[in-house]
Amino acid sequence: MSASPPKTPAAGRRRERLSAAEARRVALAAQGFAEPPLSRAVDTRALRSRVIDRVGLIQIDSVNVLQRAHYLPTFSRLGGYDVDLLDKLSHYAPRRLFEYWGHEASLIPVELHPHLRWRMRRAHDDAWGGMRRIATERPELVAAVLDDLRTRGPLPASQLAHLDAPRAPKGPWWDWSDVKRALEFLFWSGEITSARRRRFERLYDVPERVIPAAILAAPTPDDDEAQRTLLKVAARSLGIATEPDLRDYFRLPSAESKARVAELVENGDLLPVAVEGWSAPAYLAPGARVPRRVEARALVGPFDSLIWERPRVERVFGFRYRIEIYVPKEQRVHGYYVLPLLLGDELVARVDLKSDRAAGALLVQAAHAEPGAPAETAEALAVELRRMAAWLGLDDVVDVGAGDLSPALRAALAAA
Fold this sequence. Notes:
This protein is 37% helix and 19% strand. Mean pLDDT is 93; it is low at 1-12 and 168-174. It starts with 7 loop residues before the first strand and ends with a helix. The chain is an alpha+beta fold.
């Protein structure tokens, strides 16, 4: 990714109105896409300062057709890197990230643990139905699971199945056994956490063996204060946002989010602004930067925080994006695992990718350009695909699909 450095600070002067282009550049800068290329190999310091501190949390997803979702945001912002760097922050002491329900399942800085205890405390009311049912109908099983983890953890769900031996495990996550439901209730309630993942399987353990002692001993803020903190993190990471944008970042309850946003505005922690073309009121994070230009070039993963909330993506970028993983193949428009291409300050194309590790190739299953995409789109996409293939340890990029951009992309790949 290449970019020009941000030039104009919004802090120090009250912005009452932003153009659509300014808002777009604010959003990209806040997410870490307006930085100059890193002048050294990616290390832990760069990962923390230029990715985690910018995005606030990283979503986890099980789909592995290309690369695990939580590894992609760092590649998008910094290029090729050793994924063990992220694993070390989330697996080993000193623990910097913990896994919990933030924006879906997420890796979250441990400093935010106290500010999510309100959600843990509400598990009996807010957790999914199957979890709540087990906690209500089989509390003895929940207690047995917790006791076994205290004694033998960390453990995967498969090594706890004996606690419910008369009832055979039922299979994958959408058809959980009662032990798995008990584990997930305990996870939601904060009574257990994830020590690490092994081949993506979560290993559960009690927090006192995972979360730093100083974090566990930190006082628990009241719900209002905790939610204000989460909204400030969201505002910093989004740069410019509507209330629903801010709410969605940590999936806060609607009524509480609206009340907390009003309080943040009153305290000067959010600055109301009007944005050209936005029908809803917008809020600018204090200190948000308004770059004169952004010259980014990056493939953006489907679960990247830049594109979490689809109405925001359409509002900010004029880019209608839908994940089609659960759409029947014959009904898909753009493909199964589609990554937008960011070029400059626009999302100009989308590409459906798959890692064929047996063949050593990154497969392009479809490539589509957006209306008005610049002439250099195919060449820029070819460069990013080559970079991604090298990062994934693949030897080639092969366009095997369709889409209006595919002929030009094939030519660009051949030329490269």
